[in-house]
Design a protein that fits this description.
Blueprint lengths: L5 H12 L3 H15 L16 H5 L2 H19 L4 H4 L1 H10 L5 H18 L5 H18 L5
Helix pairs in contact: 1-8, 2-4, 2-7, 7-8
Length: 147
């Protein structure tokens, strides 16, 4: 089990309280699909993904990016039991969707970059360390079914 300090909880809550899900989610997923094009194979039914502009303007990608970001709310609300919180999603992504678990880490890195760009100087090294700890726990929970 991961231990969270009051400061860590406050920083993570503050980040999520101050982001626009409909902006950050689509930008993060789009960045992942553009920078790591092999991740596109899971989104074949989402329409045109032929180039960066098509990905960034694809409404299905935007909607799923927002959904993914809202999915992190579950971790935020259950920080003391993130693994159990994501058990069902882990099974879904492993057994039905067959998503390579390394892609969760790639997406978390893209999310970190997008949030850092949005927060600017407020995204201090300490804030980044806390945020990446949070995302690492989520990534581990999502990948649990694969082990």
């Amino acid at each position: 089990m991961v231990e969270w300090t009051d400061q860590e909880r406050a920083v993570i809550s503050s980040i999520f309280a101050n982001i626009d899900y409909d902006d950050i989610g689509p930008k993060s997923l789009s960045r992942c699909l553009i920078v790591y094009p092999w991740t596109q194979r899971y989104f074949g039914a989402f329409g045109n993904l032929y180039n960066a502009e098509a990905i960034k303007s694809n409404p299905n990608i935007a909607a799923h990016g927002t959904t993914v970001l809202h999915g992190l709310d579950r971790a935020l609300k259950n920080m003391d039991n993130i693994k159990a919180t994501y058990a069902e999603l882990s099974v879904l992504h492993s057994e039905k969707l067959h998503v390579d678990p390394d892609n969760f880490k790639l997406l978390s890195d893209c999310l970190t970059i997008v949030i850092a760009a949005k927060m600017g100087s407020a995204f201090t090294p300490e804030t980044q360390a806390i945020f990446q700890k949070f995302l690492a726990v989520v990534v581990s929970a999502l990948g649990r079914q694969y082990h």
